[in-house]
Amino acid sequence: MTEIIAAWEENSLKPFEKLKVHELGLKHPAVSVFVIQGNKLLLQQRAQTKYHSPGLWANTVCTHPHWGENSKTCSIRRLSEELGINTLDLKFRGEIEYRAEVGNGLIEHEVVSVFVAVISKDLDLFVNPNPEEVLSVRWLEFSKLREEIRLFPDRFTEWFKIYITQYSNEIFQKVF
């Protein structure tokens, strides 16, 4: 099934097939979710079957709203579809725009609505990854994450490296 998302064309949002958006490098809406517990961030490793950035580590959820879907609804839907997480209080942290080549001639040019969920240290969050979407998950201390990205940048998605190296203050304000 072809997934239809929104992209800007001639200063207005229009429906496009998702792969075409990335082939043309069109600016489009996206969402990113960061689930935090104490000083750790929940990361996901993208499934090997993803059409770009397979097997790379990224933030908890990163995706595109369907045509006509709002960003918070999309974030809640994808937390459930990708990780089996259904009950988090997501807080909107703002928007980030970036452009990055993601391999295979594809370009992400996104205006990302960023959501953060902070869960208490004693909450045992049940995570049930969908193998069609997620190869693996792990919790990683924020300080160790920065070091891993510095030492092994090829293990992480381009957008995640941008978030951590350029937008940490905006995303994680008053958390870490």
Summary?
Helix content is 25%, strand content 40%.
Question: What descriptors fit this protein?
Answer:
5 helices; 25% helix; globular; 176 residues; alpha+beta; seven-stranded mixed beta sheet
Shape summary? globular
Helix content: 25-40%
Whole-number mean pLDDT: 94
Derived structural class: alpha+beta
Low-pLDDT segments: none
- Termini distance? 40 Å
The largest β sheet comes out as: 7 strands, mixed
Q: Number of DSSP strands?
A: 9
Order of helices and strands: EEHEEEEHEEEHHH
Radius of gyration: 15 Å
Percentage of residues in DSSP E strands = 35-45%
How would you explain this protein's 3D organization?
The protein has 176 residues and is an alpha+beta fold. It has five helices and nine strands, in the order ββαββββαβββααα. It has helices at 18-24, 71-83, 142-151, 158-166, 168-172, and strands at residues 4-9, 12-17, 27-37, 40-46, 57-58, 61-63, 91-103, 106-119, 134-141. The strands form two sheets. Strands 3, 4, 5, 6, 7, 8 and 9 form a seven-stranded mixed sheet that branches. A two-stranded antiparallel sheet has the order 1-2. 31% of the residues are buried.
Topology:
Blueprint: E1 4-9, E2 12-17, H1 18-24, E3 27-37, E4 40-46, E5 57-58, E6 61-63, H2 71-83, E7 91-103, E8 106-119, E9 134-141, H3 142-151, H4 158-166, H5 168-172
Parallel strand pairs: 3-8
Antiparallel strand pairs: 1-2, 3-4, 3-6, 4-5, 4-9, 7-8
